[in-house]
């Protein structure tokens, strides 16, 4: 055992990092919940635990995201395993799941495509909430797909399949009732790419050309070939991209085009419904 107690380790860590982060990391190291820290401040850490905690605190002080340090982040009420190969799931992306679930609520066998699945959080959440749905999750990165598969198995989402594909390139003739995506949408050179947790996340999952809309353009232009008539396309975008997203959807012939606001009041997700094939327009 070390000479350091939980309380002492926590207080020392607070001088380097935020107290919330210190608590999360200490709970992670000892495998206990926050209530245990409060109830047992005088419990001594083992030497290996103290060493591990000190290392994590130092890494967090250098800016590494807590989610990468613990290898886990909660999303839609579920604990997802993550790694630096995937984006860290964010609360605002839960809006994309909410909107998707609404649109397949009454379908007895909905077919859903999740493009750029990353950790699989969107695909697995949809599949878990709609056990009748068949979800296909694709990503260009094999490392990301390995993380997503692991989450599907851990969380019991047996109705998710996975495909390595550069957007639509690897898809066959199948059509879907719903296509969802949380694509890259940060403009190249955006100063936010050099700030906070984003510095450690995979750049190709964040950055999308000079105006940040390259991936969204590709999704909007290609989705109609893979949607059934009356099928929906929904995607997340940046805080200032809603109007551009709606214009792209309208120009591509989508109907019922809309943008939805997240809990912060920001237009975060846009979408539209395919009502006519291009050959019929």
Layout of SSEs?
Elements: H1 6-14, H2 19-30, H3 34-39, H4 47-61, H5 66-70, E1 72-75, E2 78-81, H6 94-103, E3 111-115, H7 121-129, E4 134-139, H8 142-154, E5 160-164, E6 176-181, H9 214-223, E7 227-236, H10 242-251, E8 255-261, E9 267-273
Parallel strand pairs: 3-4, 3-6, 4-5, 6-7
Antiparallel strand pairs: 1-2, 7-9, 8-9
Helix pairs in contact: 1-2, 2-4, 6-7
Fold and architecture overview:
The chain has 281 residues and is of the alpha/beta class. The termini are far apart. The radius of gyration is 21 Å and the shape is elongated. It has two domains: 6-62; 85-280, Vaccinia Virus protein VP39 (Rossmann fold), CATH 3.40.50. It is built from ten helices and nine strands.
Question: How would you briefly describe this protein structure?
Answer:
This protein is α/β, with parallel strands linked by helices. It has two domains: 6-62; 85-280, Rossmann fold. The protein has helices spanning 6-14, 19-30, 34-39, 47-61, 66-70, 94-103, 121-129, 142-154, 214-223, 242-251; strands at 72-75, 78-81, 111-115, 134-139, 160-164, 176-181, 227-236, 255-261, 267-273.
């Amino acid at each position: 055992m070390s000479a350091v107690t939980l309380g002492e380790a926590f207080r020392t860590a607070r001088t380097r990092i935020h107290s919330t982060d210190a608590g999360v990391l200490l709970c992670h190291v000892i495998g206990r919940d926050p209530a245990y820290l409060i109830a047992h401040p005088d419990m001594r850490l083992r030497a290996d635990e103290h060493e591990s905690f000190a290392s994590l605190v130092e890494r967090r002080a250098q800016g590494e995201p807590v989610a990468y340090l613990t290898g886990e982040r909660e999303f839609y009420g579920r604990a997802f395993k993550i790694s630096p190969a995937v984006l860290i799931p964010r609360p605002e992306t839960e809006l994309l799941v909410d909107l998707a679930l609404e649109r397949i609520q009454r379908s007895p066998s909905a077919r859903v495509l999740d493009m750029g699945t990353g950790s699989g959080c969107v695909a697995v959440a949809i599949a878990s909430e709609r056990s009748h749905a068949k979800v296909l999750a694709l990503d260009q990165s094999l490392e990301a797909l390995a993380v997503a598969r692991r989450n599907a198995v851990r969380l019991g989402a047996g109705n998710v399949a996975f495909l390595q594909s550069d957007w639509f390139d690897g898809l066959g003739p199948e059509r879907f009732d719903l296509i969802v995506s949380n694509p890259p949408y940060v403009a190249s050179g955006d100063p936010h790419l050099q700030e906070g947790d984003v510095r450690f996340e995979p750049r190709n999952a964040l950055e999308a050309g000079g105006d940040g809309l390259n991936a969204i353009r590709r999704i909007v232009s290609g989705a109609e070939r893979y949607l059934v008539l009356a099928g929906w396309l929904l995607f997340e975008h940046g805080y200032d991209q809603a109007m551009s997203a709606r214009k792209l959807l309208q120009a591509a012939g989508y109907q019922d085009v809309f943008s939805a606001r997240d809990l912060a009041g920001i237009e975060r997700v846009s979408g539209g419904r395919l009502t006519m094939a291009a050959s019929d327009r």
